[in-house]
Amino acid sequence: MTDVKFIIRTADQTRKAEVEMDRSSMGSDIVQAAVDNWALPTDTDYSLVNISTGKSLVPSQLLDENFVKPGDILEVQPVLVAGT
Amino acid sequence: MRWQDQSEVPALPPTAAFLETLSMPDAVRLGRLGNMAPRVVISSACFEAMIAHLAASRDELGGLLVGQAYGVDTPQVVAVRHCAASTAFDSTGVSLRMEADVWNIARPLLGPGAAIVGWYHSHPDLGAFFSDTDRTTQRSFFRQAFSLGIVIDPIRREMRAFIGPDCVEIPPSNMMIHGPSTFFQSAAE
After folding, report:
1. Which of B5, B100, B134 sits opposite A78 (nearest CB)?
2. How many helices (H) and strands (E) does chain B have?
3. Any idea which architecture B39-186 has in CATH?
4. Whether B35 contacts chain A with CB within 8 A
5. Which of A15, A33, B86, B173 is exposed most, by the fewest CB atoms within 10 A?
6. ipTM entry
């Protein structure tokens, strides 16, 4: 499999990384890498969106050319919770 | 996998850049509060939109705040210019889960001089305070020194704001609404 190089960032755009991953990787691998590298909470639900195309990537989605092209910007978006 | 972090600590514009947008009396008023805590200046259009949004339900509602923080070493002013209301959510009178799409709603509002500066939500008839859950969310996803968390009780007409990952409360006297006539008023009044 070939690698694809893309940009990953947090939804508030305060963290950014250039990432190169095998195209056999899945959306969940990207989210996990962001959680690991940026010490994001593990008990949170995240969505992954390709900002360049506007498409969401589900956890099982492979990084094939239909979903991630070189140079695309992907965003890890947390679900926010509040409560009393 | 190769991971090359490119994160940068955002450099804030000086407070003078914000003061220059105000009339002289308003700028003087902003600096004359008698404390060094950050000032929170919410545009009247944003404030009215937030109130209208949160008053629409007796269940909790919320969204994101877009604006600009100012200050060289520490945030001295946080200007809130827009709110992005969450439209995909699950909520009750005591809980709120905002789906990730709220970030997509806020993104078109971002650009040069406009960033995510925090989040807001309601506590209908419960009073405006930060719960343990609220603090965890603030600490987890609003980690900048200027990040705001605003809580509004639209029924009791209360509002509190908390800043930074440690959720330090902003004195009510430091919260202001900035209207088109550049009239300031304390949000606590």
Report:
1. B100
2. 5, 12
3. 3-Layer(aba) Sandwich (3.40)
4. no
5. B173
6. 0.95
